[in-house]
Structures are given as C-alpha cells and as structure tokens.
Amino acid sequence: METSNILEMRGITKTFPGVKALSDVTLEVARGEVHAICGENGAGKSTLMKVLSGVYPHGTYEGDIVFEGETLSLSSIRDSEAKGIVIIHQELALSPYLSIAENIFLNNEVKGRFGLIDWHQANKRAQALLARVGLREKPTTKIMDIGVGKQQLVEIAKALSKEVKLLILDEPTAALNDEDSAHLLDLILALKEQGITSIIISHKLNEIKKIADAVTVIRDGKTIETMPKAEITEDRIIKDMVGRDLEHRYPDHTPHIGEEILRVEDWTAHHPQDPNRVVVDNVNLSVRRGEIVGIAGLMGAGRTEFAMSLFGRSYGSRISGKVFKAGKEIRTRTVAEAIDNGLAYATEDRKVYGLNLIEDIKRNVSMASLKKLERLGLVNDGQEYQVANEYRKSMNIKAPSVLAKTGKLSGGNQQKVVLSKWIYSDPDVLILDEPTRGIDVGAKYEIYTIINRLAAEGKGIIVISSELPELLGICDRIYALSEGRITGEVPIEEASPEMLLKYMTMESPR
C-alpha cells in the first residue's frame, strides 16, 4: 500500500565524540509538499539533512530512513541522488571557472559517440533546465559572471537534471536580496505543482509562513513538534525553537545618550575597480555616546562601502571627507589607524573578513589587540587564554573550550566571537554590519542584549541591517541611504517601515 508520505525518518540518533547531535528525531514529509525545518543554530537541522543525503553514511547513526516505502541504507551522496534525494547546501558547490552547463552536468556528463562529452546536447539540455527555473542566461556563461541569486537557480537546475523527487534547500535565501528571494520562493512553489517535494531549512519565518505546508521544529537535537499550515504562526515557531515565549523579539532598551563621539563630514568614496563610479556620495553622519544609530538601505545603496571606507579598508585610493572623534579630527586611512583611534568594524562577511576559521576561539578573540598581550615581543599565551575564556563565559559562546576551532561553531556563536574580538579592542565606536545575518531568533536576542550593554557603557554604535524590523527594534535613530547618499534621518519615535522604505527608494539628486 502506497503511503501519502514520501519520507519518514524514524528514531534518528547521531552522536559525535562527547556530543549527542540528534536524539530520537522523527520526521514525516508528505508527497508533494513544502516542508520547513526550523531550529536555532546548532539544533541539529543540518546534521539531520546530512544523514538523509548520505553525507553521514548508514551505520554511523541509529534509526531508519524510509523513502517511497523503501528502507534506505545510503553510503554516499551519490547513493541518495540515485534515489532522487538532492541537497543544496548553504555554501553553493559550483565551480566559478566552469560554464553553467559544465556545472549542471559535472560528474553526470552527457555522453555522445565513443564515450565523449556531447557539448551540443549538454548545452541544449542545460537551456531547457534553465527555462524551467526561469533563468535567462546562456549555458556557456561562466558561474563567476552571474550573481548569487542566479547561482542558486543553477543549483536547482542541476538538481532537476538528476530527476529529483525530494529537494532539500539549506538556508536558500540567506545570501539573496528581496527580489531574488521572492523569485526563488515562487520557483519552489512552481516545482511543487510539478510534483517535486521540498524540505527547506530557514531562519526567515515570514518566508516559511508564505510557502510551507508543514513545519517541524527541532531543539537541542530533538523533534519538538510538527504543525500543519493552518496552525503555523511565527510566535509558535519561536516558542518551540527557544523553549520559551519571546513576547518581545527585542530586549528593553532605555537609552542614556551623551555627547557626540563620532562625526563624519562630506564622506565620499569611489569604487576600487571603477574610479569614476561614486559609491558613497557626500555622507554626513553623527553618533553620540550611548546611542545606537541605524543605517537602512537597499542592496547596493552603499552601506557596507561606507563602513569599509571609514574603517580604513583599502576601498580604492579616492576617498575624501573628514572624521571627528569627540570633536577632534582623526585619520582612518588604514585598519590599524582606525583601531588606534577607537573604531571597530564587525563585517557582514564574518567567514571571509571577520574570522580565521581554521584558528581557535582564543586567537580570533585576541587578533585585533595583540599589543595588549605582548611582552618582550611575544604574546603572553596564558593571558590570551584567560581573556578569551572570560569572553566565552560573558558572551555565552557555546563551545567546550577556547581551543575549539572557530569554523566548527554555529553562525550565532561565530558572531559572538567576532563581537568579542572587537569589544576586547575597547573601541569608542563600534560599527556592526548585518550583525544577525544567518542566525536564529534566540541567538539574535542575545546579540541585541550585547549591543544594549555596549551602548549602556557609553560606546557609540552604528548598526547596518537589511531587516527594517531589526533597526526599528533596537535603534535610537536611523539614517536612510540611497545610491550612496543619505536621503533621510529619523528619530526612532517617528520611524516606520513605510517612511524608511520611502527614503530608501528615493532617487538622490546629482
């Protein structure tokens, strides 16, 4: 008898040395539905999907995987793909130097006579697959020449080439702008109409509410509950994820604002590869002690470019304007100069610029402030360990010790290491670029609490975020940026999403 479930995972338990990552997890996915899996970073979502896709082979876990009525014993990803189970990881696995068609059929080549690759046929098939995912690119276009949103569509086309029955998407919209995210969600719904079942892991609860037919919440490696579409609410998902009601997504914040700590005047920066292109255009901005100032803007508005150029990153040689700290002009031409003058910048790309992922927590925390630990030209290892351990405790970094590799931590814990690094440098002004991107609601709340604590200590905080509710929830004042120019400045009492969007989409006069 054919079951209505395409997938049943029964009693899945997975143990790593010293850690039980999954404990008796059960998951049922109906044929042809979009099934969302939610949980905090480190809850076990990705581990469960790695069990399902054969990354963790049969025998390394307890429990059963039943797919289309058959109990599977998968020993590799190739085995799962042969059954029609295809996973698309958050870190896309495409080769930038190969064409779209070459990536789609990598290890699955279209063979012609004498066993040679038939490129004409491969490009023709790739074109048909690209049409299915709504991507209007030539199959011969190199991956490096298309954006992340389009690369995500290539990954789905690649999955379709393998006759996918169950498509697993791990944080598919984490790196996408709103337009690309909307297109991807529409595509998932279109694939559902074609009979393809999807499992989507996401922290974006509004997206889940829009497309999911059911939601399973995992907490601490255990299944908490599965709710059908009619019962899905953001508050219920959050309560299941964190184990408590979050009546307020943002902690209470009573500002104690002092004198001006930072003022930026007439700040202009040109693009490093195109010196004629202005990316930050005559920006004037100020921050006071104890104040949390937000910068809102659409993708490409120049928010990160402003922060990087201000913090001495090599953003081309054509940067002009003045920076004043506590009324005195300072120079921030290099990162070292910026740090020496009391500025800190936690980048939006923590994995590339913010952390050394192959180093331990201890070295990552100290790397911006090694002078403080130096004695006779050597770093005092004992003191370095002690400092890092204090931050591990005070920032609630979930790791067995400060000797744990940073790359092994969840996104929320990695972000706490980035913040620890910059807090230890004892800055007067801290610039936080997308501080909660890709982390769950529980970890977000902890990050907001840390931001409030820093403001209460009298530091000036600048928060750059793509999430308007976040800016409205934690800031005292918000600047809006459009096309490199500030188009509005709003105190939090007067701010609304509609007003900010109006400023963010305003064409700035040239």
In short:
This protein has 510 residues and is α/β, with parallel strands linked by helices.
Q: Determine the oligomeric state from the structure.
A: single chain
Give the biggest beta sheet: 6 strands, mixed
Radius of gyration: 25 Å
Neighbour order of strands in the largest sheet? 6-7-8-3-9-10
Estimated share of beta-strand residues: 25-35%
Principal-axes shape call: globular
Distance between the termini: 69 Å
Ranges where pLDDT stays below 50 over 5 or more residues in a row are: none
Number of helical regions? 17
Helix/strand/pairing category: alpha/beta
Question: Can you walk me through this structure?
Answer:
This protein is globular. Strands 6-7-8-3-9-10 form a six-stranded mixed sheet, sandwiched between helices. It is built from 17 helices and 22 strands. Helix 14 (411-424) packs parallel to helix 15. The longest helix is centred in the middle third of the chain and has 16 residues, at 178-193. A hairpin with a 2-residue loop joins strand 17 (374-375) and strand 18. The protein is an alpha/beta fold and 510 residues long.
